[in-house]
Amino acid sequence: MTKILVVCLGNICRSPLAEGILQSRLPNHFTVDSAGTISMHEGCHPDQRAIKIGQRYGVDISLQQSRPIVAADFQEYDHIYCMDISVYQKVQSLAGNDAERRKVKLFLEEAGYTKGHNEVPDPYWGTLADFDEVYHLLVDASDKIAEKFRTESQK
Questions:
Q1: Active-site annotation holder among 13, 14, 25, 73
Q2: What is the pLDDT of residue 73?
Q3: Mean pLDDT of the chain, nearest integer
Q4: What is the pLDDT of residues 31-54, one digit of tens each?
Q5: Residue 82: active-site member
Q6: pLDDT, tens digit, for every residue of 8-25?
Q7: How confident is the model at residue 151 (pLDDT cuts 50, 70, 90)?
Q8: Main-chain dihedrals φ then ψ at residue 93, nearest 5 degrees
Q9: Residue among 146, 149, 137 nearest 25 (CA)
């Protein structure tokens, strides 16, 4: 079983969408979860706009609940993917050692995006159209990450 944790700031917009999308693209022996670097929305369901965009494309994230990343996540998960650089830096600062820090990567860089194009924008203060753009970016990146795992498993 390979376990992946996707992390954004509040765990109500980007990481819930990424969790749902990535899980739908990976085989059953992969588990995807999400968390945030802050606990402000702990226990809350994803933002209604994220839920609506997910439903529009057949990805149901409505039952997910926000939670903050915790120290145990570094032992629990094999890969920890962050949505932007500030989240990446925060998660890196929470890691207890180099082995834990090596698990932490930017989601888009793991998908092959280059510097300058390696952050998933936060749609929280935007419109439904911003959530739609983020959804499509996450789909593209998730497809690339899933293909990378398939390729690695064939080696």
A1: 14
A2: 98
A3: 96
A4: 999 999 999 999 999 999 999 999
A5: no
A6: 999 999 999 999 999 999
A7: confident
A8: -70, -20
A9: 146
Q: Do residues 111 and 141 make contact, with C-beta atoms less than 8 angstroms apart?
A: yes
- Whole-angstrom distance, CA of residue 63 vs CA of residue 43: 11
pLDDT at 116: 84
Q: Is 122 designated active site?
A: yes
What's the order of all strands across the beta sheet hosting 79-82?
30-36, 2-8, 79-82, 104-106
The active-site residue, picked from 47, 73, 84, 122, is 122
65-77 residues labelled b (16+ CB within 10 A) or e (exposed): ebbbbeeebbeeb
Against a cut of 0.85, is the pTM above it?
Answer: yes
**26 is written with which tokens?**
């990976």
So what's the pLDDT on residue 4? Answer: 98
Would you state the pLDDT for residue 152? 84
Q: Is 8 a known active-site residue?
A: yes
Q: What single letter denotes the amino acid at residue 17?
A: L
Residue that the structure tokens 């834990």 belong to? 100
